[in-house]
Design a protein that fits this description.
The protein has 407 residues and is α+β, with helices and mostly antiparallel strands. The protein has helices at residues 13-42, 50-59, 75-97, 212-215, 217-228, 235-269, 280-283, 289-295, 297-310, 355-372; strands spanning 2-9, 118-123, 129-130, 136-138, 142-144, 146-147, 158-163, 169-176, 188-193, 197-201, 206-208, 272-276, 314-318, 344-346, 352-354. The longest helix has 35 residues, at 235-269.
Length: 407
């Protein structure tokens, strides 16, 4: 499998200028390619092939006075920008024809120098390298200092240099590595995600939601107020924009750090992990949208999935319509209407349930049943039938996302 390793880099002022030049050239090539194809479509001409587009917006453009400065950057950067455009078109066509599953993909849009994220990519034929002193050598940019937090497990196939909205620079290496199976364990866990608690495990553990965005609200509000007072186009406004971006970046970094640590701990201690498939995009359109985005469920579940694949663990998403909260984990009886403010309930059989713990236990039982019998039969506990479509498969992260039963 392929993984990305991100490291902070600290280019010098001259290197920052060279990177800005490379960002601009890649953006111009992307926009020129998009404009050429758009004009061809409006004029009723055939779709420009990838090779013809490369000759038009790179090879021939370098020989014109208007685009002669494209030769100041590595040609690989320009080719990769055009490759991104071609990929965007293929994804768009596959989406509208139905070959690509999941949400519809929009057509490519023009890039702007004011976008929050600027990036260029160097592949192996660009001859980038890591020097004996630990610096990243990039063609026509130089040796850039890197803050190495760990070593690379193998030779990288490409590196993407990214500048984020906060003005920070990162090097993202793509490396191929073999699966590293961990020693087998007997533990299995079901996870119920929610807002009151970020995650409730079937063994009774509750992970409190840190609510990073809520905790940083005061600082963010002050930064936004300071930005609103600055004159548009002024140097002070540009500085205020960076301060707001830094405040948001600190929140995102803290949320990502928690998701990494918690997902690693769960994968290390359990042979199988079962998670309810929440519909984050649907919940993000409700009055709980801010809290849903602050929780970062999709990021956490995505980490669980790829780490399970990497370390030889079993990972399953439980169907969105499975009534995990209303199903008694003792007798299998499904309760009636259960509003979100009901956190504890008693089944007619006499069993008293904590709503979230009971949901996690039911998710564990449903996952174990699907794992043992994936032929499409009735494998739910009690009176709950299993969905008969694609039983036993692993849905993609963006597909079949779930409901609100776990909240």
């Amino acid at each position: 499998m392929q993984l990305r390793y991100n490291f902070r880099i600290y280019p010098t002022p001259d290197q920052c200028a060279a990177l800005a030049r490379a960002f601009g050239c890649a953006r111009v090539v992307f926009n020129d390619g998009l404009r050429a194809r758009t004009d061809a479509r409006e004029q009723g001409l055939p779709y420009l092939s990838d090779g013809e587009l490369s000759k038009r917006v790179i090879t021939r453009a370098k020989k014109t006075p208007e685009r002669a400065w494209l030769g100041e950057v590595s040609s690989v950067v320009l080719q990769q920008a055009l490759a991104d455009l071609n990929t965007a078109y293929r994804n768009f066509f596959a989406s509208i024809t139905g070959r690509r599953k999941g949400p519809k993909v929009a057509p490519p849009r023009f890039r702007s120098k004011r976008d929050n994220r600027q990036a260029i990519r160097f592949t192996r034929n660009a001859r980038f390298s890591i020097t004996p002193g630990g610096r990243l050598r990039l063609p026509k940019i130089g040796d850039v200092p890197v803050r190495w937090s760990r070593g690379l497990p193998s030779e990288p196939s490409s590196v993407t240099v990214v500048k984020d909205a906060a003005g920070r620079y990162f090097a993202s290496f793509v490396v191929a590595m073999n699966d590293e199976s961990l020693p087998e364990t007997t533990g299995e866990v079901g996870i119920d995600l929610g807002l009151t608690h970020f995650a409730v495990l079937s063994d009774g553990r509750k992970i409190v939601g840190p609510r990073f965005l809520r905790r940083a609200a005061k600082k963010l509000r002050k930064a936004q107020q300071a930005l609103s007072r600055k004159a548009k186009g002024s140097a002070n406004r540009k500085k205020a924009v960076v301060e707001v971006a830094r405040a948001h970046a600190k929140v995102a970094d803290a949320r990502r750090d928690l998701a990494h640590k918690l997902s690693t701990s769960i994968i290390r201690d359990n042979q199988a992990v079962y998670v309810e498939n929440l519909s984050v995009s649907g919940l993000a359109r409700t009055r709980m949208a801010k809290s849903v985005h602050d929780a970062g469920w999709s990021q956490f579940v995505g980490m669980l999935e790829y780490k399970a694949t990497r370390y030889g663990r079993h990972f399953t998403r439980i169907d969105r319509w499975f009534p995990s909260s209303k199903l008694c984990s003792v007798c299998g009886t499904i309760a009636g209407s259960m509003p979100l403010n009901v956190r504890e309930w008693v089944c007619p059989c006499g069993a008293a349930h904590d709503r979230d713990v009971n949901a996690a236990v039911n998710i564990l039982a449903a996952g174990q049943a699907e794992r043992l019998n994936a032929c499409g039969a009735r494998v739910r506990p009690g009176l709950v039938p299993a969905p008969r479509d694609e039983a036993g498969t692993h849905p993609k992260p963006h597909a079949r996302q779930a409901g609100i039963s776990a909240l």
